[in-house]
Amino acid sequence: MRFMHNENWDDLRFVLAVAETGTVSGAARKLGVNHATVLRRVAAYETRFGLAIFDRTAKGYSVRPDRVRMIEAAREAENAVNSVARMLQGEQAPVMGSVRVSSTDSLCQFVLPELVGALHKDVSGLRIALMSTNARSDFSRSQADVAVRPTDELGEDMVGDIGAHLGFGVYAVDPDQEDWLGLAGPLTRSLAARWMAARVEPERIVGAADSFVVLAYMAGLGLGKAILPCVIADIDPRLVRLDDGGLPSAPIWVANHVDMAGVSRIEATRRYLLDGLGNMSGRLAGEMSRA
C-alpha cells in the first residue's frame, strides 16, 4: 500500500510532530531538525496525497476538522509499529502518548491534579496536560482529547460516562449575610445559575464572576454569599455552609469525541479518571459538609 512506503512513513513523522506541537518550530525542536526541513517534509506529504492537513494561522498550525481522524489513525499506527518492535525484543508494549484533558478551573485546581499524579505513577507512558477553561473545548478541531465536565448532557459528537456528581451549597462568612454573588460568562449556563435565577432577586446580587474559584475567594472576603461547588468551599475555613443540602448536583462526565472512541491512550486515561472520580465521590458530592 502506498501509505506504508518508507518515504511516506518518514514524512508522516513530521506531520505528526506538527500536529502535536502546533508549530513548525516546535516540531523542529522535537525532531532535532531545522525549520525548513519540517516545512519541506509536511509539504511533500500533502502534495503526494493531494490534501491539506493543517489550517495555517497566526498562532500556528491546527489540524483541519476533516483530518483529525486521519491524524489519530496515524498516531495509532506509529504506536503499533513501535509496539511490534518492542514485542519482538521481548518487551511488553505499554499505553503511551500525550493526552490533553480539558476541564473547569475548579476541577483542574482542586480535583484533577491528584488523579493525574496517581496516573503518572501507575502508567508511566502517558503524559497528561490539563487544559483549564470554563468554556467548552472544540473537540472537532482537536483542542483537547478528553473532557471532564459537570454538565446535564453531552454534545451529540461526544461519548462518555458519568464518574461522580458535583454537589453545590450556599456558603458565606457570615450566616446573616443578605447580599449575593452571582454567576457570569460560561457559568450562566450552569445548574447553579438556574437555581439562583429561580430563587434570588437580581437586586440582591452585588457582584459576580465567571469562575467558581474566584467566587469562593470573594465569598471568603465577606463580599456576599455564593452558590459554590462543595469540593472548593468545604476546605475554606472562612466559609460556613448555609443550605440544608437540597441544591441540585451536576453529573461529572468523562468524555471524548466520538471519532476518538477506541484510541488506546484516550480510553486508558478515561478509565483511570472515571475510577478516580468514583473513589472521591463523597467529597465531590459535599457529604463532608452535610455530616
What does this structure look like?
There is one protein chain. With 291 residues, the chain is of the alpha/beta class. It folds into 3 domains: 2-88, Orthogonal Bundle (Arc Repressor Mutant, subunit A), CATH 1.10.10; 97-166 and 250-282, Periplasmic binding protein-like II (D-Maltodextrin-Binding Protein, domain 2), CATH 3.40.190; 168-241, D-Maltodextrin-Binding Protein, domain 2, CATH 3.40.190. The protein contains 12 helices and 12 strands. The longest helix is centred in the first third of the chain and has 21 residues, at 68-88. It is elongated and about 70 Å long.
Secondary structure elements and their pairing?
Blueprint: H1 6-21, H2 24-31, H3 35-49, E1 54-57, E2 60-63, H4 68-88, E3 97-103, H5 105-110, H6 112-122, E4 126-132, E5 146-150, E6 158-166, E7 168-172, E8 180-183, H7 191-199, E9 205-209, H8 212-220, E10 226-229, H9 230-233, E11 240-241, E12 250-257, H10 264-279, H11 281-285, H12 287-290
Parallel strand pairs: 3-4, 3-5, 8-9
Antiparallel strand pairs: 1-2, 5-12, 6-12, 7-10, 7-11
